[in-house]
Amino acid sequence: MRRPDRSPPPLAIASLHRQNGLLRGVYGSRARAASGLRPPAGAAREVIGLLLTTVVLAACGGRSNLLDGSAGSAQGGAGGSASTGATSAGGSTGASGSTGVAGSAGGGPEPDVQSIIEACVIADACAAPGFGWPVFNASSCMDAFARLGWWYEWPMSLPDPFVAKQLLSCAASAKGDCGAFRACFGGDWVELGRCREGASCGGNTMFSAPDGPTFECGAIGGTCMELWSNGLRACCNAEPCGGTGEFTCEGGKASFCGGWGERVDFDCAANGQTCTFDSQAPCKGVDACDPMSTASICKGSVAVYCAGGGLTSHDCSTTGFRTACSPGTSPWENPCRPEFMECDPTTFTGMCDGESVIVCADGGLTSIDCSALGFGGCQQTMNGAKCTVGL
After folding, report:
1. Residue 388 belongs to what H/E stretch?
2. Phi and psi angles of residue 40, each rounded to the nearest 5 degrees, phi first
3. Average pLDDT for residues 187-206, to the nearest whole number?
4. Which of 16, 98, 284, 378 could be joined to 90 by an S-S link, Cβ 3.0–4.6 Å?
5. Residues 6+ away with beta carbon under 8 Å from 1
């Protein structure tokens, strides 16, 4: 497990908390005092400068007995792997896979919270505006990283570890050069999943309209597949889907073709769960529970909840952007939530504050200096606020 780097990060990131008319930098227990942060334009000059420290996005330690009342350090979730964190993808390149929070399809260093925030801001700046549902932006990008590799959901919105690795790598190398980012990522239709609403296939390229955004499936080793649905939808399938109902459980990994022809690969064993032949809930926890009525409970930051008819757990503090446990959620709701309540990452579209863009990270308003990432400043667009190459 990689130890947190306590040294000040190269880019100052402060979560902005409005209290008594002042802007104060906060980020829970991860905050560390620092100096030299630039106050947002027009705000009060009395600002407590705080930096977001690096946290390890991996769940460490042994699995606790979910019925004995001990919190332990849980490894688990609806699917994927919390135990390996962001280190490796476990070989999966399907609709989702066996990584932890950030995912790395070929191994490599664990990305920290700051690098994910910066990557999402860069990806948002370089994405085509106004496409996708929900619309992609920096805040929704971070929230997808929080669910990556452990929480199973509908394949159309399921974050994929290989795509996540691609986004992180391309953002780190391109910075403010959107041409370089798009060439590296595979196009300007940016998402963290393999599927797109409103998409058709032209060869091996997903597109939404003749002049709309595109994504090249070959960039992630996939094949473009138009889905058998009542609307325009397509996926970059990692393996061909000749029909529905094709389901295998090998080595604890669930692999199947969904009802529309979408390919899904999800590693249950990596989380200490078992694979089940159920496309709605392909992973099952350990101790029996009612999948229709069992509500989540919290033991500190560890959420204990029902997955596929079996109790399982996940330490929300390892997600980076949903770090608090949410008690009382149904088995179909994510039991981890953002720590702060200043904003909702699923709906927040950003704000400009001078040359900085304000995004929602773990429920806290967070200011990012666009110029530090190689951009010219911040601009309000039809999708919300984002960094821009030039003004």
Report:
1. strand 384-388
2. -60, 145
3. 94
4. 98
5. 56, 58, 60, 85
